[in-house]
Amino acid sequence: ACEIAQIFTEGKTVTANYAVARWFLVKYEGTSKLAHTMLSKLGQGIAESPDSIINIRRAEERYELGVRALSEKEYTIAYKLFYMSADEGYIQAYDRLAYCYIKGYGVNVNTDEGKRLLEYAHQKGCSYATLHLGDCYRDGIFGRNYETALNYYKTAAESGNAQAQYTLANC
Question: Which pTM does this prediction carry?
Answer without folding.
Answer: 0.68
